[in-house]
Amino acid sequence: MTQAVQSVSSEVTGDLYAEVRTFYARQMRRVDALDIEGFADTFTEDGVVVHANGARAEGRAEMVAGMYANKPRYRDIAVRHWFDHLLIEPVVGGEEGELRVSYYSLVSLADREGRLTFEPTFTVEDVLVRRGGRLLTRERVIHRDLPVEF
Amino acid sequence: MTQAVQSVSSEVTGDLYAEVRTFYARQMRRVDALDIEGFADTFTEDGVVVHANGARAEGRAEMVAGMYANKPRYRDIAVRHWFDHLLIEPVVGGEEGELRVSYYSLVSLADREGRLTFEPTFTVEDVLVRRGGRLLTRERVIHRDLPVEF
Amino acid sequence: MTQAVQSVSSEVTGDLYAEVRTFYARQMRRVDALDIEGFADTFTEDGVVVHANGARAEGRAEMVAGMYANKPRYRDIAVRHWFDHLLIEPVVGGEEGELRVSYYSLVSLADREGRLTFEPTFTVEDVLVRRGGRLLTRERVIHRDLPVEF
Question: Could A18 and C14 be called an inter-chain contact, meaning their C-beta atoms sit closer than 8 Å?
Answer without folding.
Answer: yes
